[in-house]
Amino acid sequence: MSKERRDIAVDVREFRSALPSILHQGGMRLAPVTLTVGDFVLSNVHCVERKSISDLFGSFASGRLYTQAESMCRHYKAPCLLIEFDPSKSFCLQNSSELGVEIRADSACSKLSLLTMHFPKLRILWSRGPHETLKIFKDLKMNHEEVDVEKAMEIGRNESVEALLRADKSKGGEEGEEEEDEINESAREMLLRLPGVNVHAARRIMEEVDTLAELALLSREELRKIAGPIVGQKLFTFFHQKIGAT
């Protein structure tokens, strides 16, 4: 009998959902870490980006899902997009009456089709809810080595920071710029760890504020104006939530 694989690297932001608790109750050993690529890393080949239905539509609207799929496909052999439904609601992404034979910009199914055409490696996982996701994760982990958590944490980190450094260097080469890049690298890396912030949002933020402390003091309206309505709201909620909140 093969040994059951139980280790999963989980991005710390996912602990705001019910799934990590259900995975733990189901016997999984969770490693809470900060992941640049994916939300869950099940093995050294399986990386999962989890989307609720509302997250899915928001990610399509912002273009973030394309960037996430691109990163997963670059770094993992089996990148997965998990679409997790609310078990109390219909297991249906789009009404059958809305489906057609043509690709439409306002159709979620059309957008998914285009995504899979552009990223043939990407697997779409459909889950009725977190308990079903537990079963899916167990099946995916079967016959694969346990995840290397340290490696999962490192994947994509340098890539994201270097993208910001390249953006700054393209603006001009003042003396002492390399030294400044070294000093600011940690702050830039932390910026990319904030909820909803990708490289494009980080560049916009860096054009408007000089420090993370200044960013944290901005109003909801100012954050939405700088980072966009979705990312701005996520940042405002993050900066103003109580540490001991449950």
Automatic annotation (TrEMBL):
Signal peptide: none annotated. Keywords: DNA damage, DNA repair, DNA-binding, Endonuclease, Hydrolase, Nuclease, Nucleus. GO terms for biological process: double-strand break repair via homologous recombination; nucleotide-excision repair involved in interstrand cross-link repair; resolution of meiotic recombination intermediates. One of its GO terms (molecular function) is damaged DNA binding. Gene3D superfamilies: 3.40.50.10130, 5' to 3' exonuclease, C-terminal subdomain (1.10.150.20). It comes from the Eukaryota. Residues 7-87 form the ERCC4 domain. CDD domains: XPF_nuclease_XPF_euk (cd20078). One of its GO terms (cellular component) is nucleotide-excision repair factor 1 complex. It is found in: Nucleus. Belongs to the XPF family. This is ERCC4 domain-containing protein. It comes from Amphora coffeiformis. The lineage of its organism: Eukaryota, Sar, Stramenopiles, Ochrophyta, Bacillariophyta.
